[in-house]
Amino acid sequence: MRYLTPPPGFRDYLPEETERIRLVEDTIRRVTESFGYREVITPTLEYADVILLGTNTKDDTLLYKVIDRDGALLSIRPEFTTSIARLVTTRYKITDSPFRFYYVGKVFRNIPFQPLMQKEFTQGGAELIGEPSLSGDIEIISLIEEIFEKLGLVVHIEVSHAKIIPAIIEITNASILESIKNGDFVSIKSYIDDKNILSFLEALPFLSGGKEIIEEAYRYVRYIPGLEEPLSQLSLFISDLENLGYKRTKINLGVIRDFEYYTGITFEGYLEGLGLPVVGGGRYDGLLERFGMSLPATGFAIGVERVASKIVKDGSEPDLVIGYTKEKFREAMKLAQKKRNEGLKVETILCLDKNMLSSRRGRSKIFLC
Amino acid sequence: MLAIAIPSGRLMDDCVKLFEASGIYFPREILESRKLSGISENLKFLVCKPKDVPIYVEYGTADIGVVGKDILLEENPQVYELHDLGIGRCKIVVAIPNDAKPEELFFKGDIIRVATKYPKIAREFFNKKGISIEILNLSGSIELAPVTGIADVIVDIVSTGRTLRENNLKVWEEIAISSARLIANRASLHIKAGEIKDILQRLKGVKPPL
Questions:
Q1: Residues 108..137 of A with a Cβ closer than 8 Å to B: which?
Q2: What domains are defined for chain B?
Protein backbone atom coordinates (compact mmCIF):
# COMPACT_ATOMS: atom_id res chain seq x y z
CA MET A 1 0.00 0.00 0.00
CA ARG A 2 1.45 3.34 -1.02
CA TYR A 3 -1.17 5.86 0.09
CA LEU A 4 -4.63 5.83 1.61
CA THR A 5 -6.01 8.26 -0.98
CA PRO A 6 -7.09 7.08 -4.47
CA PRO A 7 -4.41 7.21 -7.20
CA PRO A 8 -4.15 10.43 -9.27
CA GLY A 9 -6.97 10.71 -11.77
CA PHE A 10 -9.35 8.67 -9.65
CA ARG A 11 -11.58 10.07 -6.93
CA ASP A 12 -14.44 9.60 -4.50
CA TYR A 13 -17.72 11.42 -4.86
CA LEU A 14 -19.53 12.34 -1.64
CA PRO A 15 -23.34 12.16 -1.40
CA GLU A 16 -23.97 15.76 -2.55
CA GLU A 17 -21.78 15.26 -5.64
CA THR A 18 -23.16 11.81 -6.31
CA GLU A 19 -26.72 13.16 -6.26
CA ARG A 20 -25.81 15.78 -8.87
CA ILE A 21 -24.13 13.12 -11.02
CA ARG A 22 -27.20 10.86 -10.78
CA LEU A 23 -29.44 13.79 -11.69
CA VAL A 24 -27.47 14.27 -14.91
CA GLU A 25 -27.56 10.53 -15.65
CA ASP A 26 -31.30 10.31 -14.97
CA THR A 27 -31.95 13.26 -17.25
CA ILE A 28 -29.92 11.67 -20.06
CA ARG A 29 -31.95 8.46 -19.59
CA ARG A 30 -35.32 10.21 -19.52
CA VAL A 31 -34.72 12.43 -22.53
CA THR A 32 -33.11 9.79 -24.77
CA GLU A 33 -35.92 7.36 -23.91
CA SER A 34 -38.45 10.02 -24.88
CA PHE A 35 -36.83 9.93 -28.35
CA GLY A 36 -37.28 6.15 -28.54
CA TYR A 37 -33.74 5.13 -27.54
CA ARG A 38 -33.16 2.01 -25.43
CA GLU A 39 -30.35 1.45 -22.98
CA VAL A 40 -27.66 -1.17 -23.58
CA ILE A 41 -24.91 -2.44 -21.30
CA THR A 42 -21.61 -3.47 -22.84
CA PRO A 43 -18.68 -5.15 -21.07
CA THR A 44 -16.08 -3.08 -19.23
CA LEU A 45 -13.30 -5.06 -20.94
CA GLU A 46 -12.97 -5.60 -24.69
CA TYR A 47 -10.19 -7.03 -26.83
CA ALA A 48 -7.66 -4.22 -27.28
CA ASP A 49 -7.73 -4.89 -31.04
CA VAL A 50 -11.45 -4.19 -31.13
CA ILE A 51 -11.00 -0.87 -29.36
CA LEU A 52 -8.17 0.16 -31.70
CA LEU A 53 -10.14 -0.91 -34.77
CA GLY A 54 -13.09 1.13 -33.55
CA THR A 55 -11.17 4.29 -32.75
CA ASN A 56 -9.21 3.85 -36.00
CA THR A 57 -5.82 4.34 -34.43
CA LYS A 58 -2.66 2.42 -33.70
CA ASP A 59 -1.93 4.49 -30.63
CA ASP A 60 -2.75 2.40 -27.57
CA THR A 61 -1.01 4.59 -24.98
CA LEU A 62 -4.32 5.93 -23.66
CA LEU A 63 -5.72 2.45 -23.00
CA TYR A 64 -5.62 0.61 -19.72
CA LYS A 65 -4.59 -2.91 -20.68
CA VAL A 66 -5.06 -6.25 -18.98
CA ILE A 67 -3.77 -9.69 -19.97
CA ASP A 68 -6.43 -12.40 -19.95
CA ARG A 69 -5.77 -16.02 -18.83
CA ASP A 70 -5.20 -17.12 -22.43
CA GLY A 71 -2.72 -14.32 -23.02
CA ALA A 72 -5.13 -12.14 -24.98
CA LEU A 73 -4.62 -8.40 -24.61
CA LEU A 74 -7.75 -6.77 -23.24
CA SER A 75 -8.52 -3.10 -22.79
CA ILE A 76 -10.76 -1.33 -20.32
CA ARG A 77 -13.20 0.67 -22.44
CA PRO A 78 -12.08 4.25 -23.10
CA GLU A 79 -15.50 5.08 -24.65
CA PHE A 80 -18.72 3.29 -25.60
CA THR A 81 -19.21 3.90 -29.32
CA THR A 82 -16.86 1.14 -30.42
CA SER A 83 -18.53 -1.39 -28.10
CA ILE A 84 -21.97 -0.44 -29.36
CA ALA A 85 -20.81 -0.77 -32.98
CA ARG A 86 -19.49 -4.22 -32.13
CA LEU A 87 -22.71 -5.09 -30.33
CA VAL A 88 -24.78 -4.10 -33.36
CA THR A 89 -22.63 -5.95 -35.90
CA THR A 90 -22.36 -9.13 -33.83
CA ARG A 91 -25.90 -9.35 -32.43
CA TYR A 92 -28.20 -7.84 -35.05
CA LYS A 93 -28.89 -8.07 -38.78
CA ILE A 94 -28.49 -5.09 -41.06
CA THR A 95 -32.21 -5.31 -41.87
CA ASP A 96 -33.03 -4.55 -38.21
CA SER A 97 -31.71 -1.00 -38.64
CA PRO A 98 -32.09 1.80 -37.69
CA PHE A 99 -30.88 1.26 -34.14
CA ARG A 100 -31.39 3.77 -31.35
CA PHE A 101 -29.26 2.86 -28.33
CA TYR A 102 -28.09 4.82 -25.33
CA TYR A 103 -25.68 4.11 -22.49
CA VAL A 104 -24.51 5.52 -19.17
CA GLY A 105 -21.35 4.20 -17.59
CA LYS A 106 -17.75 4.60 -16.55
CA VAL A 107 -14.89 4.87 -19.03
CA PHE A 108 -11.16 4.75 -18.30
CA ARG A 109 -8.34 6.60 -20.02
CA ASN A 110 -4.69 6.34 -19.13
CA ILE A 111 -3.95 10.03 -19.66
CA PRO A 112 -1.28 12.04 -17.86
CA PHE A 113 -2.92 13.28 -14.70
CA GLN A 114 -4.30 16.82 -14.62
CA PRO A 115 -7.05 18.26 -12.44
CA LEU A 116 -10.47 18.24 -14.21
CA MET A 117 -9.17 15.42 -16.41
CA GLN A 118 -10.11 12.30 -14.51
CA LYS A 119 -8.78 8.97 -15.71
CA GLU A 120 -12.09 7.41 -14.71
CA PHE A 121 -15.24 9.28 -15.60
CA THR A 122 -18.85 8.72 -16.61
CA GLN A 123 -20.11 9.05 -20.14
CA GLY A 124 -23.76 9.16 -21.04
CA GLY A 125 -24.65 9.22 -24.69
CA ALA A 126 -26.67 7.90 -27.58
CA GLU A 127 -25.94 6.29 -30.94
CA LEU A 128 -28.26 6.46 -33.92
CA ILE A 129 -27.13 3.74 -36.31
CA GLY A 130 -28.54 3.25 -39.80
CA GLU A 131 -29.86 6.75 -40.47
CA PRO A 132 -27.83 8.28 -43.31
CA SER A 133 -29.60 11.62 -43.72
CA LEU A 134 -29.22 14.97 -41.96
CA SER A 135 -32.40 14.20 -40.03
CA GLY A 136 -30.27 11.86 -37.91
CA ASP A 137 -27.76 14.60 -37.10
CA ILE A 138 -30.63 16.96 -36.28
CA GLU A 139 -32.16 14.37 -33.94
CA ILE A 140 -28.86 14.07 -32.06
CA ILE A 141 -28.52 17.84 -31.57
CA SER A 142 -32.19 18.08 -30.51
CA LEU A 143 -31.52 15.41 -27.91
CA ILE A 144 -28.56 17.31 -26.47
CA GLU A 145 -30.41 20.62 -26.36
CA GLU A 146 -33.35 18.94 -24.60
CA ILE A 147 -31.08 17.32 -22.01
CA PHE A 148 -29.39 20.58 -21.05
CA GLU A 149 -32.73 22.42 -21.13
CA LYS A 150 -34.13 19.90 -18.63
CA LEU A 151 -31.03 20.35 -16.46
CA GLY A 152 -31.53 24.13 -16.49
CA LEU A 153 -28.09 24.73 -18.03
CA VAL A 154 -27.22 26.93 -21.00
CA VAL A 155 -25.15 24.85 -23.40
CA HIS A 156 -23.28 26.36 -26.34
CA ILE A 157 -23.13 23.76 -29.12
CA GLU A 158 -20.63 24.47 -31.87
CA VAL A 159 -21.10 22.59 -35.12
CA SER A 160 -18.63 21.95 -37.89
CA HIS A 161 -18.04 19.32 -40.58
CA ALA A 162 -15.33 16.67 -40.76
CA LYS A 163 -14.86 17.10 -44.52
CA ILE A 164 -13.60 20.69 -44.28
CA ILE A 165 -10.01 20.00 -43.27
CA PRO A 166 -9.60 17.08 -45.73
CA ALA A 167 -10.88 19.43 -48.48
CA ILE A 168 -8.01 21.82 -47.70
CA ILE A 169 -5.47 19.04 -47.50
CA GLU A 170 -6.67 17.62 -50.82
CA ILE A 171 -6.17 20.88 -52.69
CA THR A 172 -2.87 21.89 -51.09
CA ASN A 173 -1.27 18.51 -50.51
CA ALA A 174 0.21 20.26 -47.51
CA SER A 175 1.36 18.41 -44.44
CA ILE A 176 -0.80 20.50 -42.15
CA LEU A 177 -2.50 17.52 -40.56
CA GLU A 178 -0.46 17.45 -37.34
CA SER A 179 -0.60 21.23 -36.90
CA ILE A 180 -4.36 21.33 -37.34
CA LYS A 181 -4.84 18.43 -34.94
CA ASN A 182 -2.86 20.35 -32.33
CA GLY A 183 -4.88 23.53 -32.93
CA ASP A 184 -1.71 25.19 -34.24
CA PHE A 185 -2.78 27.89 -36.70
CA VAL A 186 0.70 29.42 -36.77
CA SER A 187 2.94 26.80 -38.31
CA ILE A 188 0.46 26.06 -41.13
CA LYS A 189 1.68 29.29 -42.71
CA SER A 190 5.00 27.76 -43.60
CA TYR A 191 3.31 24.94 -45.52
CA ILE A 192 0.84 26.89 -47.64
CA ASP A 193 1.72 29.34 -50.41
CA ASP A 194 -1.72 30.12 -51.78
CA LYS A 195 -2.86 33.40 -50.21
CA ASN A 196 -6.57 32.63 -50.46
CA ILE A 197 -6.31 29.22 -48.87
CA LEU A 198 -4.12 30.61 -46.12
CA SER A 199 -6.58 33.38 -45.36
CA PHE A 200 -9.35 30.75 -45.09
CA LEU A 201 -7.26 28.73 -42.64
CA GLU A 202 -6.47 31.81 -40.58
CA ALA A 203 -10.13 32.81 -40.50
CA LEU A 204 -11.23 29.26 -39.59
CA PRO A 205 -11.15 29.54 -35.77
CA PHE A 206 -13.34 32.66 -35.99
CA LEU A 207 -15.88 31.47 -38.54
CA SER A 208 -18.59 31.08 -35.96
CA GLY A 209 -22.18 32.25 -35.87
CA GLY A 210 -25.39 31.63 -37.80
CA LYS A 211 -26.16 31.18 -41.48
CA GLU A 212 -24.12 34.26 -42.39
CA ILE A 213 -20.97 32.24 -41.62
CA ILE A 214 -21.83 29.81 -44.40
CA GLU A 215 -22.07 32.71 -46.85
CA GLU A 216 -18.70 34.01 -45.69
CA ALA A 217 -17.11 30.59 -46.05
CA TYR A 218 -18.76 30.04 -49.43
CA ARG A 219 -16.49 32.73 -50.90
CA TYR A 220 -13.63 30.23 -50.57
CA VAL A 221 -15.35 27.46 -52.56
CA ARG A 222 -13.68 28.95 -55.67
CA TYR A 223 -10.28 28.08 -54.22
CA ILE A 224 -11.24 24.95 -52.29
CA PRO A 225 -13.97 23.13 -54.26
CA GLY A 226 -14.23 20.38 -51.64
CA LEU A 227 -15.82 22.90 -49.26
CA GLU A 228 -19.06 23.04 -51.20
CA GLU A 229 -20.58 19.78 -49.96
CA PRO A 230 -19.90 20.26 -46.23
CA LEU A 231 -20.99 23.90 -46.36
CA SER A 232 -24.27 23.15 -48.08
CA GLN A 233 -24.94 20.37 -45.55
CA LEU A 234 -24.21 22.73 -42.67
CA SER A 235 -26.48 25.35 -44.19
CA LEU A 236 -29.44 22.97 -44.42
CA PHE A 237 -28.66 21.63 -40.98
CA ILE A 238 -28.63 24.98 -39.21
CA SER A 239 -31.82 26.17 -40.97
CA ASP A 240 -33.69 23.05 -39.91
CA LEU A 241 -32.55 23.43 -36.31
CA GLU A 242 -33.64 27.06 -36.29
CA ASN A 243 -37.07 26.12 -37.67
CA LEU A 244 -37.45 23.53 -34.92
CA GLY A 245 -36.70 26.19 -32.30
CA TYR A 246 -33.32 24.89 -31.15
CA LYS A 247 -31.34 27.99 -30.34
CA ARG A 248 -28.21 26.80 -28.55
CA THR A 249 -26.47 25.52 -31.66
CA LYS A 250 -24.16 27.68 -33.76
CA ILE A 251 -21.87 26.98 -36.66
CA ASN A 252 -18.20 27.14 -35.78
CA LEU A 253 -15.84 25.96 -38.47
CA GLY A 254 -13.01 26.21 -35.95
CA VAL A 255 -14.26 23.10 -34.15
CA ILE A 256 -11.85 20.41 -35.20
CA ARG A 257 -12.62 16.93 -34.02
CA ASP A 258 -10.77 13.85 -35.16
CA PHE A 259 -11.47 13.99 -38.91
CA GLU A 260 -9.97 10.57 -39.50
CA TYR A 261 -12.82 9.11 -37.43
CA TYR A 262 -15.74 11.43 -38.15
CA THR A 263 -17.25 11.70 -41.63
CA GLY A 264 -19.90 14.44 -41.50
CA ILE A 265 -21.45 16.90 -39.07
CA THR A 266 -19.35 17.14 -35.88
CA PHE A 267 -19.93 19.18 -32.75
CA GLU A 268 -18.75 20.14 -29.29
CA GLY A 269 -20.71 21.72 -26.46
CA TYR A 270 -19.49 24.07 -23.75
CA LEU A 271 -20.87 25.50 -20.52
CA GLU A 272 -19.96 28.99 -19.35
CA GLY A 273 -17.02 28.98 -16.97
CA LEU A 274 -15.75 25.51 -17.93
CA GLY A 275 -12.74 25.54 -20.23
CA LEU A 276 -13.29 22.00 -21.49
CA PRO A 277 -16.11 20.60 -23.65
CA VAL A 278 -18.95 18.83 -21.81
CA VAL A 279 -20.39 17.05 -24.84
CA GLY A 280 -19.04 16.01 -28.20
CA GLY A 281 -19.82 13.80 -31.13
CA GLY A 282 -20.80 13.66 -34.75
CA ARG A 283 -21.31 11.42 -37.75
CA TYR A 284 -19.01 8.40 -38.09
CA ASP A 285 -20.16 6.55 -41.18
CA GLY A 286 -16.97 4.50 -41.48
CA LEU A 287 -16.97 2.76 -38.09
CA LEU A 288 -19.51 -0.04 -38.53
CA GLU A 289 -18.03 -0.97 -41.87
CA ARG A 290 -14.75 -1.75 -40.11
CA PHE A 291 -16.74 -4.30 -38.10
CA GLY A 292 -18.25 -5.78 -41.25
CA MET A 293 -21.63 -4.09 -41.47
CA SER A 294 -21.90 -1.08 -43.72
CA LEU A 295 -24.18 1.27 -41.79
CA PRO A 296 -24.06 5.05 -41.32
CA ALA A 297 -24.11 6.33 -37.75
CA THR A 298 -24.13 9.43 -35.62
CA GLY A 299 -24.08 10.05 -31.88
CA PHE A 300 -22.95 12.03 -28.88
CA ALA A 301 -21.35 11.53 -25.49
CA ILE A 302 -21.78 13.77 -22.45
CA GLY A 303 -19.07 14.07 -19.79
CA VAL A 304 -21.37 13.51 -16.84
CA GLU A 305 -19.14 14.71 -13.98
CA ARG A 306 -18.22 17.91 -15.81
CA VAL A 307 -21.88 18.73 -16.35
CA ALA A 308 -22.71 17.79 -12.75
CA SER A 309 -20.09 20.26 -11.49
CA LYS A 310 -22.25 23.08 -12.91
CA ILE A 311 -25.52 21.91 -11.37
CA VAL A 312 -26.74 23.94 -8.43
CA LYS A 313 -28.71 21.71 -6.11
CA ASP A 314 -28.90 21.28 -2.35
CA GLY A 315 -28.02 17.86 -1.03
CA SER A 316 -30.96 15.72 0.00
CA GLU A 317 -31.78 15.02 3.66
CA PRO A 318 -33.94 12.49 5.51
CA ASP A 319 -37.57 13.47 5.98
CA LEU A 320 -37.40 12.28 9.54
CA VAL A 321 -34.62 11.59 12.02
CA ILE A 322 -35.58 9.47 15.03
CA GLY A 323 -33.24 9.68 18.00
CA TYR A 324 -33.72 7.03 20.66
CA THR A 325 -32.18 5.88 23.91
CA LYS A 326 -31.21 2.24 24.36
CA GLU A 327 -34.47 1.42 26.13
CA LYS A 328 -36.57 2.82 23.29
CA PHE A 329 -34.95 0.75 20.51
CA ARG A 330 -38.05 -1.29 19.62
CA GLU A 331 -40.41 1.66 19.71
CA ALA A 332 -38.06 3.65 17.47
CA MET A 333 -37.72 0.80 14.94
CA LYS A 334 -41.48 0.30 14.78
CA LEU A 335 -42.05 4.00 14.20
CA ALA A 336 -39.38 4.07 11.51
CA GLN A 337 -40.89 1.04 9.78
CA LYS A 338 -44.29 2.69 9.72
CA LYS A 339 -42.98 5.99 8.39
CA ARG A 340 -40.86 4.26 5.72
CA ASN A 341 -43.93 2.40 4.56
CA GLU A 342 -45.63 5.77 4.20
CA GLY A 343 -42.84 6.69 1.78
CA LEU A 344 -40.63 8.81 4.03
CA LYS A 345 -36.85 8.64 4.23
CA VAL A 346 -36.15 7.83 7.87
CA GLU A 347 -32.82 7.69 9.70
CA THR A 348 -32.59 6.24 13.21
CA ILE A 349 -29.83 7.14 15.63
CA LEU A 350 -28.97 5.75 19.03
CA CYS A 351 -28.47 8.80 21.27
CA LEU A 352 -27.27 9.44 24.79
CA ASP A 353 -29.24 12.67 24.97
CA LYS A 354 -31.33 14.98 22.84
CA ASN A 355 -28.38 17.27 21.97
CA MET A 356 -26.85 14.61 19.77
CA LEU A 357 -29.71 15.11 17.32
CA SER A 358 -29.19 18.81 16.83
CA SER A 359 -26.27 18.50 14.43
CA ARG A 360 -27.98 15.89 12.20
CA ARG A 361 -29.49 16.86 8.84
CA GLY A 362 -33.20 16.14 8.64
CA ARG A 363 -36.47 17.84 7.76
CA SER A 364 -38.00 16.89 11.11
CA LYS A 365 -36.65 15.18 14.21
CA ILE A 366 -38.13 13.14 17.03
CA PHE A 367 -36.36 12.08 20.22
CA LEU A 368 -37.70 9.02 22.06
CA CYS A 369 -36.62 8.63 25.66
CA MET B 1 -14.23 40.52 -19.93
CA LEU B 2 -11.30 38.55 -21.29
CA ALA B 3 -8.50 37.28 -19.06
CA ILE B 4 -5.00 37.06 -20.51
CA ALA B 5 -2.09 35.11 -19.00
CA ILE B 6 1.26 36.85 -19.41
CA PRO B 7 4.63 35.18 -18.76
CA SER B 8 6.68 36.86 -16.05
CA GLY B 9 10.31 37.82 -16.59
CA ARG B 10 12.11 38.89 -19.74
CA LEU B 11 9.30 37.99 -22.11
CA MET B 12 6.90 40.20 -20.19
CA ASP B 13 8.96 43.31 -20.98
CA ASP B 14 8.71 42.51 -24.68
CA CYS B 15 4.98 41.88 -24.29
CA VAL B 16 4.46 45.27 -22.66
CA LYS B 17 6.12 47.00 -25.64
CA LEU B 18 4.30 44.94 -28.26
CA PHE B 19 0.93 45.37 -26.60
CA GLU B 20 1.43 49.12 -26.15
CA ALA B 21 2.25 49.44 -29.83
CA SER B 22 -1.14 47.92 -30.58
CA GLY B 23 -2.95 50.13 -28.08
CA ILE B 24 -3.31 47.59 -25.28
CA TYR B 25 -1.94 48.91 -21.99
CA PHE B 26 -0.87 46.79 -19.03
CA PRO B 27 -2.46 47.70 -15.69
CA ARG B 28 -0.21 50.06 -13.70
CA GLU B 29 -0.27 47.93 -10.59
CA ILE B 30 1.40 45.09 -12.48
CA LEU B 31 4.13 47.32 -13.91
CA GLU B 32 4.76 49.30 -10.75
CA SER B 33 4.21 46.79 -7.96
CA ARG B 34 4.49 43.12 -7.29
CA LYS B 35 0.82 42.48 -7.91
CA LEU B 36 0.28 39.51 -10.19
CA SER B 37 -3.15 40.46 -11.49
CA GLY B 38 -4.87 43.64 -12.56
CA ILE B 39 -7.48 45.06 -14.90
CA SER B 40 -6.87 47.49 -17.71
CA GLU B 41 -9.83 48.60 -19.81
CA ASN B 42 -11.65 45.39 -20.67
CA LEU B 43 -8.80 42.98 -20.08
CA LYS B 44 -7.79 41.14 -16.95
CA PHE B 45 -4.06 40.45 -16.84
CA LEU B 46 -2.61 37.48 -14.96
CA VAL B 47 1.16 37.24 -14.57
CA CYS B 48 2.31 33.61 -14.42
CA LYS B 49 5.53 31.69 -14.61
CA PRO B 50 6.09 31.11 -18.37
CA LYS B 51 5.63 27.37 -18.09
CA ASP B 52 2.31 27.85 -16.28
CA VAL B 53 0.69 30.06 -18.93
CA PRO B 54 -0.76 27.12 -20.91
CA ILE B 55 -2.15 25.65 -17.68
CA TYR B 56 -4.14 28.81 -16.95
CA VAL B 57 -5.37 28.87 -20.55
CA GLU B 58 -6.16 25.17 -20.77
CA TYR B 59 -8.45 25.39 -17.72
CA GLY B 60 -10.06 28.58 -18.99
CA THR B 61 -8.97 30.66 -15.99
CA ALA B 62 -7.33 32.76 -18.69
CA ASP B 63 -9.08 32.95 -22.08
CA ILE B 64 -5.90 33.75 -23.95
CA GLY B 65 -2.21 33.81 -23.14
CA VAL B 66 1.30 34.50 -24.38
CA VAL B 67 3.72 31.57 -24.29
CA GLY B 68 6.90 30.40 -26.01
CA LYS B 69 6.63 27.72 -28.69
CA ASP B 70 9.29 25.76 -26.75
CA ILE B 71 6.82 25.33 -23.88
CA LEU B 72 4.00 24.38 -26.25
CA LEU B 73 6.20 21.72 -27.84
CA GLU B 74 7.18 20.34 -24.45
CA GLU B 75 3.80 20.43 -22.72
CA ASN B 76 1.50 19.88 -25.72
CA PRO B 77 -1.48 21.59 -24.06
CA GLN B 78 -4.99 21.39 -25.55
CA VAL B 79 -5.20 25.01 -26.70
CA TYR B 80 -5.50 26.89 -29.98
CA GLU B 81 -2.34 28.57 -31.21
CA LEU B 82 -3.46 31.70 -33.05
CA HIS B 83 -0.56 34.00 -33.81
CA ASP B 84 3.22 34.24 -33.82
CA LEU B 85 3.94 37.41 -31.87
CA GLY B 86 7.52 37.46 -33.13
CA ILE B 87 9.02 38.24 -29.72
CA GLY B 88 11.09 35.97 -27.52
CA ARG B 89 12.81 34.41 -30.52
CA CYS B 90 15.21 31.58 -29.75
CA LYS B 91 16.29 28.16 -30.92
CA ILE B 92 16.00 24.82 -29.21
CA VAL B 93 19.33 23.09 -29.78
CA VAL B 94 21.50 20.19 -28.82
CA ALA B 95 24.77 21.61 -27.51
CA ILE B 96 27.95 19.64 -26.89
CA PRO B 97 31.34 20.51 -25.35
CA ASN B 98 33.60 22.52 -27.68
CA ASP B 99 36.18 19.77 -27.82
CA ALA B 100 33.71 16.91 -28.39
CA LYS B 101 33.47 15.15 -31.73
CA PRO B 102 29.83 14.32 -32.49
CA GLU B 103 30.63 11.09 -34.35
CA GLU B 104 32.53 9.81 -31.30
CA LEU B 105 30.05 11.17 -28.80
CA PHE B 106 26.81 9.95 -30.36
CA PHE B 107 27.62 7.04 -32.58
CA LYS B 108 29.89 4.79 -30.56
CA GLY B 109 27.01 3.12 -28.81
CA ASP B 110 27.48 4.61 -25.36
CA ILE B 111 24.41 5.85 -23.57
CA ILE B 112 24.51 9.63 -23.67
CA ARG B 113 23.30 11.58 -20.66
CA VAL B 114 21.30 14.66 -21.70
CA ALA B 115 20.66 17.51 -19.27
CA THR B 116 17.57 19.55 -20.10
CA LYS B 117 14.39 21.23 -18.94
CA TYR B 118 12.71 19.87 -22.06
CA PRO B 119 12.62 16.09 -21.44
CA LYS B 120 9.88 15.39 -23.99
CA ILE B 121 11.48 17.39 -26.82
CA ALA B 122 14.88 15.84 -26.08
CA ARG B 123 13.56 12.29 -25.94
CA GLU B 124 11.63 12.64 -29.20
CA PHE B 125 14.64 14.13 -30.97
CA PHE B 126 17.07 11.40 -29.93
CA ASN B 127 14.47 8.65 -30.47
CA LYS B 128 14.11 9.78 -34.08
CA LYS B 129 17.90 9.70 -34.45
CA GLY B 130 18.08 6.26 -32.90
CA ILE B 131 20.51 7.42 -30.23
CA SER B 132 20.15 5.91 -26.75
CA ILE B 133 20.01 8.55 -24.06
CA GLU B 134 19.35 9.09 -20.39
CA ILE B 135 17.53 12.29 -19.44
CA LEU B 136 18.73 14.38 -16.53
CA ASN B 137 15.89 16.73 -15.67
CA LEU B 138 17.28 20.09 -14.52
CA SER B 139 15.41 23.34 -14.04
CA GLY B 140 18.04 25.96 -14.84
CA SER B 141 21.71 26.70 -15.56
CA ILE B 142 21.69 23.74 -17.92
CA GLU B 143 25.03 24.80 -19.40
CA LEU B 144 26.71 23.84 -16.16
CA ALA B 145 25.94 20.16 -16.63
CA PRO B 146 28.57 19.18 -19.28
CA VAL B 147 31.17 21.41 -17.63
CA THR B 148 30.83 19.51 -14.38
CA GLY B 149 30.51 16.12 -16.03
CA ILE B 150 27.06 15.38 -14.62
CA ALA B 151 25.83 15.11 -18.24
CA ASP B 152 27.43 14.71 -21.67
CA VAL B 153 25.30 17.11 -23.69
CA ILE B 154 22.39 19.48 -23.20
CA VAL B 155 19.12 20.32 -24.93
CA ASP B 156 18.23 23.93 -24.25
CA ILE B 157 17.14 27.21 -25.78
CA VAL B 158 19.69 29.72 -27.07
CA SER B 159 19.10 33.24 -28.28
CA THR B 160 22.49 34.92 -28.75
CA GLY B 161 24.65 31.89 -28.00
CA ARG B 162 26.72 33.80 -25.50
CA THR B 163 26.00 31.54 -22.53
CA LEU B 164 26.97 28.51 -24.60
CA ARG B 165 30.26 30.10 -25.71
CA GLU B 166 31.23 31.23 -22.25
CA ASN B 167 30.65 27.73 -20.91
CA ASN B 168 32.69 26.04 -23.66
CA LEU B 169 29.73 24.59 -25.50
CA LYS B 170 28.76 24.62 -29.17
CA VAL B 171 25.58 23.90 -31.09
CA TRP B 172 25.47 20.43 -32.61
CA GLU B 173 21.96 20.45 -34.10
CA GLU B 174 18.95 22.71 -34.10
CA ILE B 175 15.76 20.95 -33.02
CA ALA B 176 13.26 23.77 -33.52
CA ILE B 177 12.86 27.52 -33.69
CA SER B 178 10.75 29.12 -30.99
CA SER B 179 9.00 32.44 -30.48
CA ALA B 180 6.12 33.71 -28.38
CA ARG B 181 2.64 32.64 -29.47
CA LEU B 182 -0.82 33.92 -28.70
CA ILE B 183 -2.86 30.95 -27.51
CA ALA B 184 -6.56 30.63 -26.70
CA ASN B 185 -8.71 28.36 -24.60
CA ARG B 186 -10.92 26.13 -26.75
CA ALA B 187 -14.16 27.07 -25.04
CA SER B 188 -13.33 30.78 -24.88
CA LEU B 189 -12.56 30.84 -28.58
CA HIS B 190 -16.09 29.67 -29.18
CA ILE B 191 -17.95 31.64 -26.53
CA LYS B 192 -15.89 34.87 -26.69
CA ALA B 193 -14.82 34.74 -30.34
CA GLY B 194 -15.54 38.44 -31.00
CA GLU B 195 -13.40 39.78 -28.17
CA ILE B 196 -10.50 37.44 -28.97
CA LYS B 197 -10.65 38.30 -32.67
CA ASP B 198 -10.45 41.99 -31.79
CA ILE B 199 -7.25 41.54 -29.75
CA LEU B 200 -5.77 39.22 -32.36
CA GLN B 201 -6.31 41.80 -35.10
CA ARG B 202 -4.75 44.55 -33.01
CA LEU B 203 -1.70 42.40 -32.31
CA LYS B 204 -1.43 41.32 -35.94
CA GLY B 205 -1.33 45.00 -36.92
CA VAL B 206 2.04 45.67 -35.24
CA LYS B 207 5.55 44.64 -36.12
CA PRO B 208 7.44 43.05 -33.24
CA PRO B 209 10.16 45.34 -31.86
CA LEU B 210 13.53 43.83 -32.72
A1: 114-116
A2: 2-88+179-204 (3.40.190.10), 90-178 (3.40.190.10)
